[in-house]
C-alpha cells in the first residue's frame, strides 16, 4: 500500500528513504538486499535465511519466491507497480557480492545477525512504555529476557 505520507507496507512498516534526495522512492535495507542478492545467485543454503529476517511484506515475499526456486526475472515480470519493480531490482542488485559460497555465508551471517539484533532492539523499544506499569517481578522477568536476547544476538 502506498500512502501519501510516505511509502509503507500494508502492515505499516515504512521503507527507508533513499539518501540521494529522491524522496519519492523507498530504499531497501542493505542487509536485506545483500541476502536477497546472494539467494538469487544461489550462494546461500536455503535453510540459512528465515522469512522473518526481512522487515517488509515485499522483501519477505521476494525471499519466499527465491526460496521456492523462482528467479529475479520471474519475480520482476509479475510486478506491475513501477516503484515496487525498481525497489525489487535494487534489492536483487546488491554489490559487491562475494564470489565464493564460503565468503557469502560469512557475509550472510553478519547480515542476519544485524537484522535480528535490529528487530530485537525495535521490540525492546516498543515495550519500554509498558515497563512502568509492571510490578517488580514482571520487570525483573522482562529484563532477564532482554538480557538473554542481547546475549544471543551478540554471540
Characterization of this structure:
By secondary structure, the chain is mainly α. Helix content is 57%, strand content 5%. A hairpin with an 8-residue loop joins strand 3 and strand 4. Helix 1 runs parallel beside helix 2 and helix 5 runs antiparallel to helix 6. It is elongated. The N and C termini lie far apart (37 Å).
Number of separate strands: 4
For the biggest sheet, the summary is:
2 strands, antiparallel
Radius of gyration, whole Å: 18 Å
Overall average pLDDT:
79
| N-to-C CA distance | 37 Å
Strand content is 5-15%
| SS field, number of helical segments | 6
The unreliable regions are: 1-25
The SS-based structural class is: mainly alpha
Q: Main sheet: which strands, in order across?
A: 1-2
Binned, the helix content reads 55-70%
User: What overall geometry do the principal axes of the alpha carbons give?
Assistant: elongated
Helix and strand run? EEEEHHHHHH
A few lines on this structure:
By secondary structure, the chain is mainly α. It has six helices and four strands; from the N terminus they run E-E-E-E-H-H-H-H-H-H. The strands form two sheets. It has a two-stranded antiparallel sheet with strand order 1-2. It has a two-stranded antiparallel ribbon with strand order 3-4.
List keywords for this structure.
155 residues, two-stranded antiparallel sheet, 6 helices
